[in-house]
Amino acid sequence: MTDLFSGQEAPLADRIRPRTLAEFIGQRHLLGEGRLLRRAIEADRLTSSIFFGPPGCGKTTLASIIANSTKSAFVQLNAVTSGVADVRKVISDAQERRAYGQSTYLLLDECHRWSKAQSDSILPAIERGIIRFIGSTTENPMVSMTPAIVSRCRVFQFEPLTERDVLTAMRRAIDDPERGYGQMHITADDDALRHIARIAGGDTRAALGAVELAVLTTPVDAQGIIHITLAVAEESIQKPMIRCDESLYYDMLSAFCKSLRGSDSDAALAWFARLIYAGVDPKLIARRIIAHASEDVGLANPIAMLQAEAAARAVEFVGMPEARLPLAQAIIAICESPKSNSVCAAVDAAMAYFAKHHIESYQWQGADGMYISEGYRQHLESKGKTWNRGEFARFWHLLDEIDVPAGSTLGHTIHVSKGSYFTAPNPDVTFEETQRDLAPWFELVHGSYDKISPNNGELLINGIDKGTAVRDVASLLGYSVADTIAIGDSDNDTAMLKAAGISVAMGNAIHGIQAFCDFTTTDIHQDGLANAFKMLGLV
Q: Both ends of the chain: CA-CA distance in Å?
């Protein structure tokens, strides 16, 4: 017989590990009297199997019991460290034993970590009965393992141990004179052990590790007794951490997003709390909140975007844990808001229109950055050295501060506040035709890039413009719109200038902006803003 776990230097959890089915704790649905798995082990007739369950529930322990009780050879590999060569060696040795009438068990820990090539190398041996495969995994084998392997194995799902089971294991470890602490004078308060059992969450290994730490670090009192109190137990057991590997992260994030989209604030907050508890970067959550504020709520409640952005800024400025509150506030606001996908529909319509009429040079602006098309990138490059200095830099002075993509950004999720387009000198549609065709979704105004492209425009979501922003911000801050001042120079400023209590046109304003403004200041290159402030008595 092979003892997989021996040696007094081993951790308590390994030393105290049950050696027989009679000593095994928990999993009564699998190993109770008369159950299939118990019968198969006792008869030494266990076929290829997969033990699936959370850490510390007894999977490896049961494998060690099988190893110590079977008449078959028992070989153990770890999927992380073993390769195809190791598997071939196991199969070769198993074939030799088989010739003498002895079977071979192969225990593979972390079997979900095996590659397809490794799985394929052992599949024929399983099919022909050369080895009896036992895989141990914490991941769902239906998802994480090769279907061909799973289909040839019986999957036994292990459950987390109950607090009662964990208490039994701890008391056995304290009382056992051979492998535990039975030869030492140890007393453990009931509330201390119950606390460890509760925090361990069904993981016996974690509970026994806490007991071991408590025993080894607690000084002996005057009577020669090690007394494990509740305070000692609280220090010895680590708060359980939610496992969050890549697949689980995406599952939780998906559930969070579906809760936002489904207006279920209770579920959204629950998934938010779980993501944070699992250690997920709150910035990632903030980005999803902003996305949903635009994609799902949109124009039905534009204030939701302001709340989402404010929450994201709180993450940057305040940090955690305080930022959890504005994040939660934004989550509730999105869930409770009416929903509209009109923004997404409008952007998709515009992109389709651009593609149809070969308007390739355009960009979108949003709260999360600028998105430049491939056509616009080529347009910029055609300007040569002038595109980052001189006259062009006057219009696009931030270009050096953003990354111009190597290819189209059309595949990105864009949270749009405004779009701009630039055409070649002779497009197949006029500005007026584009204005008419996109009217169901956008208000189209002349752009301010006349020196870059002779035919250019800006697309504003219908009903949402700078005038809307002036009114909403004034209301949010508790001011009358009559007390606001707006300064602008282009068609996209028109709504803002007309909405504000006082309007000022820049000296370089285009398309007749000066005609309806209250005042006109000097050109932007002649201290236009400063002169406007002086004229209004603001400085």
A: 92
Please indicate, yes or no, if residue 310 is contained in any of the structural domains: yes
398 shares its domain with 520? no
CA contacts within 13 A on the Cβ side of 259: 21
What are the DSSP calls for 61-124, one per residue? HHHHHHHHH-SSEEEEEETTT--HHHHHHHHHHHHHHHHTT--EEEEEETGGG--HHHHHHHHH
Question: 180 and 226 share a domain?
Answer: yes
Structure confidence at residue 384 (pLDDT): 53
Residue whose C-alpha is closest to residue 160's, from 36, 32, 55: 55
We report the CATH number of the domain holding residue 314 as: 1.20.272.10
Is the same domain home to 19 and 147?
yes
For 311-357, how does the pLDDT look when each residue is reduced to its tens digit (9 = 90+)? 998 988 888 888 899 999 999 999 999 998 887 788 788 878 877 77
Measure the CA–CA gap between 495 and 163, rounded to whole angstroms: 66
Residues 6+ apart with CB under 8 A from 503: 485, 486, 487, 488, 497, 516, 517, 518, 519
> Are residues 404 and 478 both part of a single domain?
no
Backbone φ, ψ for residue 57 (5° rounding): -100, -5
pTM of the model: 0.47
- Please indicate, yes or no, if residue 402 is contained in any of the structural domains: yes
Residue 488 pairs with which residues in a beta bridge? 505
Strand pairing partners for 78? Answer: 109
Q: Which residues span the domain enclosing 29?
A: 12-157
| Structural domain count, the chain | 5
Instruction: Kindly state the DSSP code that residue 53 receives in the 8-state scheme.
Output: -
